[in-house]
Design a protein that fits this description.
Blueprint: H1 2-66, H2 68-72, H3 74-86
Helix pairs in contact: 1-3
Length: about 90
Amino acid sequence: MKRNKKEQEIHELSQENKFKELRIRQSIIILLALSGLLVLIILVFILLLGQRILRTEQEHSRLMQRNPEIADEPTLHFQLTLQHTASGCAGGC
């Protein structure tokens, strides 16, 4: 009987270990998925920021071509453009 009881205990411990391993694998998968999502969000943010900077530079160039007086004071205009961009105004503010 002792042997049977020990075999039963070994079987139960084995099942418990398998269950714990499965939980660990699930946790790792969830962690990797969340990490991937975070990386994706960061990449989208970087792309959107780069696009906004590019638009600002294009607008700056367009204004320089349209108004030669502004071209004589590029530092002032660039500072105003940066302030406008930093304030969160989009397009028609």
